[in-house]
Design brief:
This protein has twelve helices and 13 strands. The protein is an alpha+beta fold and 414 residues long. The chain has a six-stranded mixed β-sheet, with helices on both faces. Strands 10-11-9-12 form a four-stranded antiparallel β-sheet. Strand 10 (343-347) and strand 11 form a beta hairpin. Helix 2 packs across helix 4, helix 4 (165-180) packs antiparallel against helix 5 (187-194) and helix 6 (239-254) packs across helix 8 (276-302). The structure holds alpha-D-galactopyranose. Alpha-D-galactopyranose binds at residues 43, 47-48, 50-51, 184-185, 187-188, 235, 348-349.
Length: 414
């Protein structure tokens, strides 16, 4: 399937490990001492519900960010990556939300946020960090949460901070909100850290309780196909923040701490008290929370082949009530339905990015072709279509020679 700078081909963890080690050596002139990986995520259902204290059902995917690390003694943190020649350098003593910027804020911001969360950063050493990734940027697959997850896990273990994964997600979100400046919820960081093979994770974003929900896709010969529209979104500005503000206005007007406190019975009152636009934003959140729980019940009772109605209804609600879809996403969802998907919806924050289709594996290739043909006919950029597998969350990678099957790497790591 098509490759482009924005949508790198899938590499597999071992290839990413090797690239991270090589890149690290080229950037910093010595070998790293440990390797860490964090996946991207797809949200199966529950969109914009996280910052409303509601329910989400994401899963980690088989696309990863890998980070090579070497500790240093002078409290400097230096970061570099395969997507820039730049090396950004900052002392741990100078860390603050304001002192970090650009892409390195995702990494440096997490170190700062760990301190805010109570980590004693006064005595930790410095770090050199080098990052590679096959998660497309701007595709709604949480390349940023993968950066936050990978550095969180690494410093937690290397510095013995003792945070559990839920707290690492909280730290990652704080970095995203306050250091990067994107007003997101907790979903992406949680998915990246808590994902389990063949499963999605049900997250109650108020209590932060989670439940692993097995998807059983193989049993039903189903796959999840992502269509990256290559319409790039940006969550630090614009529509995402506006949706969040509408939800806050709705909750304030209706006299509840958050929209999580409302159910279908409140829709009448909401319609009376709110202007039409705010009402539709609120209706999306109320019905989306219902759909998440309904989908989990359906999945557990009847299997993944039965969850199409909830997926489809979620997309309609995002298109018409929350208004975060774009024509390219709508087209990709229509094409998926035409080709015979069980269900399809846009995934992630919206205003671009990707849609997902749950579909019998025998139809996946036909779906990819149909998407490309439909996009060409509509005059849109060629989409990138690929299958994702629900995968494990962030991990430390085995490293020390034998596990990295690349002679160049073995030489470097000796
Ligand atoms: C982005 C944010 C998440 C969530 C989704 C929408 O991915 O990072 O916190 O709000 O959008 O569901």
């Amino acid at each position: 399937m098509t490759d482009s700078p924005a949508t790198p081909a899938p590499k597999g963890l071992e290839e990413l490990d090797a690239a991270a080690v090589r890149g690290f050596a080229a950037a910093f002139g010595e070998a790293p001492t440990s390797l860490w990986a964090a996946p991207g995520r797809v949200n199966l259902i529950g969109e914009h519900t996280d910052y409303n204290d509601g329910f989400v059902l994401p899963f980690a995917i088989d696309r990863h960010t890998v980070m090579a690390v070497r500790e240093r003694e002078d409290r400097l943190v230096r970061v570099s990556s395969s997507f820039t020649d730049e090396i950004v350098e900052l002392s741990i003593d100078e860390l603050s939300a304001e002192a970090v910027s650009g892409w390195s804020a995702y990494l440096l911001g997490v170190i700062w946020a760990a301190g805010v969360q109570g980590a004693d950063l006064a005595r930790v050493p410095g770090l050199d960090l080098y990052v590679v990734s096959d998660i497309p940027v701007g595709a709604g697959l949480s390349s940023s949460a993968a950066l936050e997850g990978v550095v969180g896990l690494a410093i937690d273990e290397l510095w013995g901070l003792g945070f559990d994964r839920r707290t690492l997600a909280v730290i990652g979100r704080r970095a995203e909100n306050e250091a990067v400046g994107a007003p997101t919820g907790i979903m992406d960081q949680s998915a990246v850290l808590l994902g389990r093979l063949d499963s999605a994770v049900l997250i109650d974003c108020r209590s932060l309780e989670t439940r692993v929900v097995p998807l059983g896709l193989d049993d039903e010969e189903l796959v999840i196909v992502v269509t990256d529209t290559r319409v790039e979104h940006e969550h630090a500005t614009g529509g995402y923040a506006a949706r969040r503000a509408s939800c806050e206005l709705g909750a304030r007007t209706l006299g509840v701490p958050s929209l999580r406190d409302l159910g279908p019975d409140d829709l009448g009152r909401a319609e009376e008290l709110l202007d039409d636009e705010t009402f539709r934003r609120v209706r999306h959140i109320i019905t989306e929370n219902e759909r998440v729980l309904d989908l989990v019940r359906t999945l557990e009772k009847h299997g993944a082949g039965a969850i199409g109605p909830q997926l489809d209804a979620s997309h309609t609600s995002m298109r018409d009530d929350f208004e975060i879809s774009v024509p390219e996403l709508d087209l990709s969802v229509e094409v998926a339905r035409r080709v015979g998907a069980v269900g399809s919806r846009m995934t992630g924050g919206g205003f671009g990015g990707s849609s997902i289709a749950l579909i019998h594996r025998s139809k996946a290739e036909a779906l990819a072709e149909a998407q490309r043909a439909a996009f060409a006919e509509a005059g849109y950029r060629e989409p990138v279509v690929f299958t994702v597998v629900p995968s494990e969350g962030a991990v430390r990678r085995p490293f020390g020679g034998a596990s990295v099957a690349d002679p160049a790497v073995e030489r470097i790591s000796e």
